[in-house]
Amino acid sequence: MTSPTLAGIEKLARNAGAILHTGYNKNHQIDYKGAIDLVTEVDRQSEEYLIQAILKEFPDHYILAEESGIVDGNDEHIWYLDPLDGTVNYAHHIPIFCVSIAYAHKRTMKFAAVYDPMRDEMFTAERDRGAWLNGEGLQISGTSELERSLLVTGFPYDMWDTPNDNLAEFGRFTKLTQGVRRLGSAALDLCYVGTGRFDGYWERSLKAWDAAAGGLVAEEAGAKVTNLDGGPSYISSPQSIIAAPPILHEKMMAVINKV
Ligand code: IPD
Ligand code: CA
Ligand code: CA
């Protein structure tokens, strides 16, 4: 029985990315999963391709996929699939989105691939071996001061109704840093921390498939990635995440704890 490889996962991400690229800028069939949470036919096409391709090679593996939910199997092997991260951008013809795939063996995230087909940027990571952008090793930024940092965040789909809407944190960091961006793709936000484009990232209420692959990329590039209580799990519920160089992570946590 063969095991998953980083090269195999990269290939899946590239093929799914081609589906997103082909569908980009077309008129989409949009369905609403919530008031502001939408899905297009291309999310579903990308996910269908990924699930079929994984099951063809690994028929007994467990898959957690955004649009289909759980494909039951042996949970020593778990796949986390976000077939299109940045759906709202995609539906509005904004070219900031990606496909995000992570594979965990016996509960340890092992491989990750996040592919941005518009820029042909392939972010990959392997636990304890490193993180790469198109094959070049990644390293986080050396920024340790909030006033020198550029941050990124996102907001939950239930933000119309929840007091936990991240706006107070957003406002506070906006007055302490060079700025806070909101790109609309959690997986790319995390990979951009891995490249050093952003110095830090935080968000609440993501799902496992949003954070699994990008989290490994950021970690392997040197970021400290935790939940907002400082604990190591950032994919299980109640989900929250912060990723930054260790010194900046500490400073960001202090701000968040005060808000
Ligand atoms: C969303 C994006 C966004 C984040 C949301 C996610 P989707 O994923 O990653 O940046 O703020 O919380 O749900 O719906 O585009 O796959
Ligand atoms: Ca997502
Ligand atoms: Ca998605």
Textual characterization of the structure:
It is a single chain. 32% of the residues lie in helices and 29% in strands. The chain is built from 7 helices and 15 strands. The chain has 259 residues and is of the alpha+beta class. It has 2 domains: 132 residues, 2-Layer Sandwich (Fructose-1,6-Bisphosphatase, Chain A, domain 1); 113 residues, 3-Layer(aba) Sandwich (D-Maltodextrin-Binding Protein, domain 2), CATH 3.40.190. The chain starts with 5 loop residues before the first helix and ends with a helix. The protein is globular and about 50 Å long. Strands 4-3-5-6-7-8-9-10 form an 8-stranded mixed β-sheet, sandwiched between helices. The structure holds D-MYO-inositol-1-phosphate and calcium ion (CA) (2 copies).
What attributes does this structure have?
single chain; 259 residues; alpha+beta; Fructose-1,6-Bisphosphatase, Chain A, domain 1; D-Maltodextrin-Binding Protein, domain 2; 2 domains; five-stranded mixed β-sheet; 7 helices; binds D-MYO-inositol-1-phosphate; binds calcium ion
